[in-house]
Amino acid sequence: GWVIALLLVVSPAYSATVALKAVRRNSVPINPPLASVVASPGDIIEAEFFVSDWGDEFPKGFRAFNFIVPGAVVARSGTNGTVLPLGWSASIEPASCVNDADCEMGEVCRSLRCVLPEHNPSMGAFVNATRPDYLLIDFTNIGPEVATASLRYRYFGLAFENGGATDTGMEAYAGTLILKVSDGACGTFTVSMAPCGESILATPAQVEISPSLGSLVINLPECPPIPIASQPPNCAIDARIPHPQGIEGEPLAWNSLEMIFDRNPTGLTVSSFRTRSIPKLPAPSVESVLPSSDPIGILVELDEPIGPERWTCFEHRPTLREACLALLPGDVDQSQATDSADATALVGNLRRPGSQPSIPEYRCDIDRSGLCGPLDLLVLLDLFNGSGFEGWYEAEIPHVCPSLESLEQRLPRGACCNQMGGCIGDVLELDCADINGTWVRNAQCCAAPCSGILGSCCDQASGTCADGVAASSCQGIAKVWTESTSCGQLDCVADRGACCNLDSGVCIDNVLSQNCSGPSDSWRPGAACGGADCRPN
Question: How far apart are CA 68 and CA 199, in angstroms?
Fold first, then answer.
């Protein structure tokens, strides 16, 4: 979910509670504010940050806060759809840009990001410093401000006075976050806070507190069956001939798509789907919806074949997920452009040993005969040369294909503790299981309790032994780690040897390494002075 982290510079003597609670739903007050709220697609949820329980000692000098809200994670923390700040009119990860020419059609370049013209994230993120319950109300303030150039929102406030506000036992307001639930959203969205040192609540003396962090949970209706794949696959390009050679009035292109769901779809009709074209051009209409050969699939049929040099997208309206197809005759390598590389790709496929092509039929069966063979190369050249066709050499699809979001992208992620006590971040539970790790849902590595397999660590240089040590913490030329043992089970004897002083030539037997550490000393493990060369330099 959204991660709202607070770095509170921490002394164990103090504690505090930081919470994000819903205070309004569609402008209707929620009283008292709640950390869990029921909502519907299209709702607007207004939430506020509250700080409490910091005690009477800590506030002396308290005067700054800095909250970081990495919002790209929470946006898709539910099963489908998004929860985004009000006014955010851009993709979740906007493309970088220098000017408008770097952006997609309809977008503009602002603050080096491609956004829609109506983009105004300040509508959904602010701090009202005039409220009587504002955290720094008794101070002369710098700010407060909220940085919203990216979805990593940053709430900031600073005051000059050395005195601190008194803990009245009431929650103090620290900022507002207004969230818009998208159409088609379903499942549970969680706005979590992670104590990973990303934000600050501090005094001039850097007095630290360790906050108890809450979460805001937005509960949406149960999800309908969700599309997770398609056949042909999303963003596939039909490289075959667009019509019989010399007969332009008989278009040959895809006029249907099989959409695969996460479970058996029921009750779907023509009105459950719609089409669009990228760029915005007339698109075929959905004519029928039929069961497919796949028990969790639906065949969506169009009233005419898709058009060339564009993406035709099939959208499942209940979830707003779509799969897109294109027609670009000759685009064997699926580069969205036709050139000599396509002929090279086709020849390479023909040279492949065995009877099965290495690329799908829609890329190599150029003449639509049902087979991929040498004749397809001749027809490809006809396509490029305009022999019976329009001439498709150096044609292109200039727009990026939207991607059908797979179910895997919706699965929860977390921190994975490996057996050595190390941590890997942003990992699926199944991927963590593959390495026999311990998975912590929605956690970051900085907050995951990764202890790993413990054992004993024998330092053979000193003869000392430590219990309950991870292998990663028992490193050194004279240290030996033994898995799942205690020092009482080991005979941890220090290595001894000869200690030669290379200035004087003096040698001493049976010396521990740490006792032979002078600037001119040379320790010889396991050796005796009789066999050691201790001649002076």
Answer: 5
